[in-house]
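job 3f2a | input accepted
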Amino acid sequence: MPRNSDAIALTPLRLWGPFVFWAALIFAFSSYPKAIIPQGKYISWDKLAHLVEFGILSYLTARAFRFSGIRYLAGRYGWITMIFGLLYAISDEFHQLFVKGRYASVYDVVADFIGVLLGALLFANLLRRKAAKPLVSS
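job 3f2a | predicted structure (138 res):
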């Protein structure tokens, strides 16, 4: 398996653990019978929560695939992140159809996907900045 030099420093647990933990946490929160985020008068805290939780998931997804050490996945981490994020958002809403007191919402999927886009862009931007940083030798 081809290895990326950046991936060598990350053990599989450090690479995939945060991603799996966060995806499981989203699933667990979706299993609550009633949403735990209060609705505001002027802002939908629920949509903001969707954006943030999927932004974090997206960042962790991009990180895991980019540094996986598998050249095919690392080179396509952006597309993989977008597709995975959208499918996970849809599956999260589908899951809520079976939870008493919850319902599926297209607007939640939209908020989730905006979070996916922002998380992936943040990761790509940080990666670019790191690559552009000049090496200082001592």
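job 3f2a | Residues 1-7 have pLDDT under 50 and may be disordered.
job 3f2a | closed
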